[in-house]
Amino acid sequence: MKILVTGAAGFIGAALSRRLLDRGDEVVGLDVMNDYYDVAVKEARLAPLLETPGFTFVKMDLADRGGIEALFAEQQFDAVMNLAAQAGVRYSLENPHAYVDSNLVGFVNLLEGCRHNEVGHFVYASSSSVYGANTSMPFSVHDNVDHPLSLYAASKKANELMAHTYSHLYGFPSTGLRFFTVYGPWGRPDMALFLFTKKILAGEPIDVFNYGHHRRDFTYIDDIVEGVIRVIDHPAQPNPDWDSAAPDPGSSKAPWQVYNIGNNQPIELMRYIEVLEDWLGKKAEKNLLPLQPGDVPDTYANVEDLVHDLDYKPDTPIEVGIKNFVDWYRDYYGV
Length: 335
What we know:
Order of helices and strands: EHEHEHEHHEHEEHEEEHEEHEHH
Helix content: 40-55%
Radius of gyration: 19 Å
Strand order of the largest sheet: 3-2-1-4-5-6-11
Distance between the termini: 40 Å
Largest sheet: 7 strands, parallel
Number of helices: 11
Oligomer: single chain
């Protein structure tokens, strides 16, 4: 297939592009290469892709309406995987407009591209953040998610609604993927594992929010990529049993669906730090802080639909995933 991967220089985007190329797909990778975090990391992720036959890189902002229209018309994609977004819960409190430009304006530009160019499947990154104020665990795609706690989460929920509208109106399949705390080699420098590793090795204290008591469904990058590929190959189908009198939030009469992709095993943050300390061979000095605005105390993915529909369940333990990250970090930074 010819697949557009947006956010191709990102953590998930670069890993996914490698896997798609390995199996023989043609990949057009799009990224704006902004400086939300160290651009050198993005360039290093991209470098091996640029040398791989079948990969084409396009530097473009999703909000560039004319540019996106021309790209879709020229390339005629079989599928689109949208991983480009302004990420981060806390940053959405500082710079809300960045989320509107990328996560809303850019998203509708992609939907329009799919609509006008007969794209076979539109897949996009949603987030576990959409569960917001939900406290029923584990989080299920069949739960109502109308109470987001950050603009980032609201933008991801809006993506799911926008995609549903287009699938309903124009009949093309769309699938949203609610990722749960992705980590691993080449991870984002603004995320906890990267920040903790850098500071522990430098002998600096780490900020531990919610006094280390919150739990996250940490999901290893390779498990995320495997789930994404299975979804790309399995276009959303209408649910013939969908009942408007008792609407299921996770499916539709339109060819629209959402899946959780999570490890299905929440880990307390303090345990996560302990495993990191073990692999670094160094103890962390902890600066214990309260829960931050926009954060949720716990995340825990119900993956029954993923198992049922795609015969897949992420299962990499943090002891393996964190070791792989530490090995990569030491090699990349020479420490």
